[in-house]
What we know:
Layout: H1 5-12, H2 22-31, H3 43-53, H4 59-72, H5 77-94, H6 97-113, H7 117-133, H8 137-153, H9 157-174, H10 177-194, H11 197-214, H12 217-233, H13 237-254, H14 257-280, H15 284-308, H16 311-334, H17 338-362, H18 365-381, H19 385-402, H20 405-421, H21 425-448, H22 461-492, H23 498-540, H24 543-552, E1 558-570, H25 573-578, H26 582-602, E2 606-611, E3 614-619, H27 628-652, E4 660-674, E5 680-684, H28 686-696, E6 703-706, H29 707-713, E7 719-727, E8 731-738
Parallel strand pairs: 4-6
Antiparallel strand pairs: 1-3, 1-4, 2-3, 4-5, 6-8, 7-8
Helix pairs in contact: 2-3, 3-4, 4-5, 4-6, 5-6, 6-7, 7-8, 8-9, 9-10, 10-11, 10-12, 11-12, 12-13, 12-14, 13-14, 14-15, 14-16, 15-16, 16-17, 16-18, 17-18, 18-19, 18-20, 19-20, 20-21, 22-23, 26-27
Amino acid sequence: MKTNPQLISTLTLLPFGKVLSRGTLLMLILFSSLSIVAQDANPLLDSLRQVLSNSSDSPQKIDVLNDIAWELKFDDPEEARKYLAQAIELSNKIDYKKGAGQAYNNWGVVETIHENKSKAIANYEKALVIRQELDDKKGVASIYNNIGNLQSELEAYEDALISFQYSLRIREELKDSQKIANVHYNISVTNEIWGNYSEALDHIFQCLEISQQMNDQSNIINAYNVIGNIKTELELFEEAKENYEKAMAIALEMEDDWEIASAHNNIGNNKDDFGERNLDEDDFKAAFQKFKEAIQSHEAALALRQKMEYDDEVSASYNNIGLVYKNIGSYHLKLKEKDAAKQALEKALDYLQKSLNIREELEDKQGIMEVYNGIGDVKRRQEKYKEAIQFANQYLAIANEIGDDKFRQNAYKDLSKAYEATGKYQLALNNQKKYDDLRYDRLDESRTRFNSRREAIFGDRKKQLEIDKKQLEIDKQEAAIQKASLQKKVLIGGAAGLLLVLGLLYNRFLIKNRANKTLEEKNSIIAEEQKRSESLLLNILPKATADELKEKGSTAAKKHTSVSVLFTDFKSFTQVTESMEAEALVALLDYCYRGFDEIVQRHNIEKIKTIGDAYMCAGGLPEANETHAIDIVKAALEMQEFMNKVNAEREALDQPILSMRTGIHTGPVVAGIVGSKKFAYDIWGDTVNIAARMESSSEIGRVNISDATYQLVKDSFECIYRGKISAKNKGEVDMYFIS
Length: 739
């Protein structure tokens, strides 16, 4: 059995990742004749203990204690902790701060390996204090990075980003390009998990740029994979596939089986997600094709992982194949093909069981929980509700044990569905209530983490430099005028008569007049440039935000408790693009978006941005108002009407049309400026993600709203209740069409 090589790599790259100290190596040489290693499974550990038995209290002994603990970190963590405690005690006794710092850091690594994240952070923080006292910048940066990774795993994303920023600042000061790229990678992944896709892309592109400059092929592969993951989250499946294929091309060139398998795995997941999207949209033929392609990719990944004997990754491939067969079973069920559905679901169980066998052997609780979840889903599709309930309760127990709220929430939902199917409505209702309570608790927790979002600094440097340059020219001209006047006074002083004095005065008058005229021209240029800068600023930012920026030089992110967010998207846009010339396509999008801009401006709504063929805007910010939900629904209806007219004209000319879906959700967001180059006013929060799900769950030509929006507009519009609709990563959500 082998361990995931990425885990080993992570540990060896941790700060103070152990290389034996010079003192320890010398002592090993001295006592090598005393070491008997032939019968020992770890001869290095035996030699270190031999050295320790002959050591007096000294820095070298502390180094040996740390080295022994490092060797024990995987197999005997309790023994490793004992040696680290001795190292710390002796370091304090002889005032060897470096040794204590290394011991606390190593202790953090031990706790990280064995999933004691809070204890790991506590030890890293103790090591951090010592490294700061020793002015060990490299060590401090590494510890901040490790703490950030753990905070991200604990879902303390804002704390994690702060830690990563500290690490990045030091790495940039040290000009360590490799580590700068790594920190950008970590910041990107954390933002991706948190749902801040714009910032995630910004940092992963910086990682990619640095890695390409260094020709770091492994990091380039990682960057393309993360870009693919983000594009998948945004449901830009074709763009995601393009990035996964770039990662695959490099991996094939490197002949790196691990990376090739990872690329196959990502491409497989991408096709499976794409297939689910097509299945939801009743495009059954496209869905089935994607599922077949997903199986091929996952089987290719499985073959390589079996060859490399990485059991945890083999288990993951079995699990992924099982989940695709589960989706194929759903495909056949929708088509009422019972025999085909039965075969697919039995295959799903076969692969999931293979995954479970390995994960039980590895004692991987997280993995076991995930497989139980998948098996329970299959059992429910097979209408074996008793077994489905059994597996849901099993993975609920693990979720409670390890504190995984996401899977606790999924378990309550699965139990509710299974109990409802068996007629046990009270139990179904109880579990639905637990699901709802936990869901809203998690939403509230997520919202509170946005309260102190970082400030974004903006300055229009280029325009300011132009203004400063013009002002400098004026100042130089003024100085030249004054110098000329002084020289003339000296030349004519006492030597010229009244006529010469009058001539001088007249000459000065002419010079001054020209200077004043020049000043007026320059001032006019400056005023015009300032006017253009302000106009540009107001075209990019809301007026209140622009005013704050001009007054203070920066803006603070602001939380808005009630905002209505609208997304539009054109269905099958990729197919439309294939049938149009690039210029015609851009002209069509420009025409549509200009129409949308006019509509939202008329309804006092703030345009946020466009993302490809998606348009996003929000009502109720930057200035709060009571009518934002009604305003944005009116705008949505006008947008659909506008597109109906556009499509009617294009159909008359036998041109491709753009069929649009629209979704709206109301809730809290955080708004502010991001970036210092190509800056933009943007909003963040789960409200944005839910609004996007409202759009993807909508239908062509319809405006789909959430229950939160419905409660604000139900007295102003006729609404059609759609029931609880499954939304990706959000569970089942109450949705309404505006009729």
